[in-house]
Amino acid sequence: MTLREAAEIVGGWVATENYDVEIFGPESLDDSGPGDFSFYGSPKYLKNLRRSKATACFVPHGFAEEVGPIRIWVDDPGEAFAKLLLHFAPVPVIYPVGVHPSAVVSSGAVVGDEVHIGANVVVEDGAVIGLKSIVCAGSYIG
Predict the structure, then answer these.
(1) Mean pLDDT of all residues in the chain?
(2) DSSP, res 113
(3) Secondary structure of residue 56 in the 3-state scheme
(4) Whole-angstrom distance, CA of residue 111 vs CA of residue 127
(5) Is 81 helix (H, G, I), strand (E, B) or coil?
C-alpha cells in the first residue's frame, strides 16, 4: 500500500511529495523498521518517535517537529492507526455451523447452538461445548 492510499483511507495528509512510498504493515514506534507504519499520540513518546525506524507515522495536526518517519497528519493518530490496521489484517476464517460427518459426539455430551465441530473430532460423555464454539478437526474433548 502506498502512502497516498493510506492517507486516503484515514483522511490524512502526507508530509512528502513522494506519495508512492510503500508501507507493508503496522508496528510500534520502538520495534518498527523500513516499510512499517506507526502512530504518535502523546508527547511522552517523542523520544520514541525520534528513534523510530518506521517509514511513516500518523501524527496529530499541528505536529511540526522534523522526525525520521514520514509524517501523515490526521485528527486522531491512534484512530487512524486502528483504521489502517484493518486493511492489513488477515481475512478471518469462517467455520460452517454443524458437525462434520466423521466426528463422533457422544449422546451424553452437551453441544450448544451454532457450533462448528470439524472432521474426526471426538466429544465424550459429560463434555460441554458452548454456544458458537469452534472445535477444529482432529480434536478430542473428554
Answers:
(1) 95
(2) T
(3) strand
(4) 8
(5) helix
pLDDT in tens, 10-64: 999 997 777 899 999 999 999 999 999 999 999 999 999 999 999 999 999 999 9
- Which of 89, 59, 80 minimizes the C-alpha distance to 71? 59
Residue pair 74/10 in contact by the 8 Å Cβ criterion: yes
Q: What nine digits make up the cell of 126?
A: 459429560
Q: What is the rounded average pLDDT of the residues 100-105?
A: 98
pTM value is: 0.68
* Nearest CA-CA partner of 104 in 127, 80, 122: 122
107: Cα within 13 Å, side-chain hemisphere? 0
Beta-strand ranges (E) seen in the chain are 13-14, 25-26, 36-39, 56-60, 70-74, 98-99, 104-105, 110-111, 116-117, 122-123, 128-129, 134-135, 140-141
Quick one: how far is CA 63 from the chain centroid? Answer: 26
